[in-house]
Design goal:
With about 180 residues, the chain is of the alpha+beta class. About 35% of the residues lie in helices and about 30% in strands. It has five helices and seven strands. About 30% of the residues are buried.
Length: about 180
Amino acid sequence: MSPSPAAGAAPMVDLAVETLERFAAAFFHAAGPALTTSLNKPLTVQVTDVSATTFKTLLDDLDAPWAFIEMTYTRGMTGTHFLIVSRRNALALAGDAGAEVMDLESRHKEAIRNTVNQLLHAAAPPLMPLFARSVAWAPVTVHVVARDEELPGELPMDQRVWAARAQAQGEDLTIDVVLTID
């Protein structure tokens, strides 16, 4: 006879989602102060959703071109997360919200790298209790993706991925971001 789950026990999927929600909340916990400092505008960050999706579905919801900001662990954990934003949101992360440029220029990519590196530095302490160890990241890489075929690291469009959607808000500024969690 197979063991039956205890009465009232949460299904494994619910526990996985709860853990991913805790990760997203911890990751974005310090994002508001980090973005406030980096962009010199008071911002708060709220996680709006954590769900499973595919890259195709995820990107269908965002205006192209996209910025894939690659964040790879160097200590405490292994793997890579991507912070994905539309061009408009990438310009906002670069401190150039409202700019009418078609492509992200090298100055925008450098500003995004600086902003996200600061965000990662601030995210490490809130993540430590979750992992029971300190974490650190390599300097981020910014990939500008105009078409499906250009996804970084040969990511397949039909790959299932957990995505945490978050929104940074402040006076006259809203930045929508998606964090992949694998």
